[in-house]
Task: structure prediction
Amino acid sequence: MPETTFLDANELVINMGPQHPATHGVLRVKLKLDGERVLGTECIIGYLHRGVEKIAENRTYAQFTPYVDRMDYVAAVTNGMGYVEAVEKLLGVEIPPRAQYTRMILAELQRIASHLLWLGTHALDIGAMTPVFYTFREREEVLKIFEEYCGARLTTHAFRIGGLQYDLYDGFERDVSKFCDYFLPKVDEYEQLLTKNRIWINRTRKIGVITAEEAIALSVTGPVLRGSGVKWDIRKAQPYEAYDKVEFDVPVGEHGDTYDRYVVRMAEMRQSVRIVRQCVERIAPGPIFGKVGKVLKPPAGEVYHSIEAPKGELGYYLVSDGTVNPYRVRVRPPSLINLQALDVMSRDHLVADIVAIIGTLDIVLGEVDR
Result:
């Protein structure tokens, strides 16, 4: 009998998602396969689109603040931080040191909480069940501090344009210091489970490799970029708040694979603890709000401001026409930009590796779609 092929082709196109548990949200990926080997991918997004940027144009600057918490909903603190800083830049407002150090503490705790959620779910995707129980145990301690501070655990609305929503509660510094002491040995515990685990190494080494040149060409940022050996961190390169007054290192990888990105994020959690401890030592009594009017009317103009969110560069572009509503708001979300790299990282891998590669990008679809 003559050799036949399926649909007169050697290649097969299948859908992964948008309900697949390993896509971490409603992401649909079209896979072009030759057997189990991936020839190419196409991401189809938009299932979670809420028109956040258009909503901003119909709200005052202050009214829009809670909406940004819902984009990357596992890193609400840093979302809010980036937005209020952009508006403050537009207004030309400086916030007092007490507010700066408090913002940095909350932002770094949020980075830890975000990385913990990533580590637990990423390991679960690959087949390691134990880490998710450990990481959620420590994440809960961070959420307790957030809840005590402002009453929210997930969409933590912590900041106001010009400063803080609330001053610190009694015992805040004690609780944060206690968490830092408790947390560092736990990171060692995660590493005992995974770092030299031969199954983990086989599932992550040489998987999803992206070179420094490819990462830069695709505008990839955050741990994905640093995993490829590029030492770029906005907290160092373009300091905001008081990051230029604290000491910390920028971890980088060598090979740009899934394993290196894991190592980078583990090191970042340790560096976040280091930053938090310095901020706790420097918090002093004082005002928590800068000189901001009750009605916010920035002068006509435009501004772009970005911060180092847990997933990469989170930028806000604002255009003011001199009224109480922004004329235009545009968000540069790291999850969306980093997702561009999926096709480059996936080619010539197996279908099972796609799960590991999507996980190593650490995307949140609320931020991708907005």
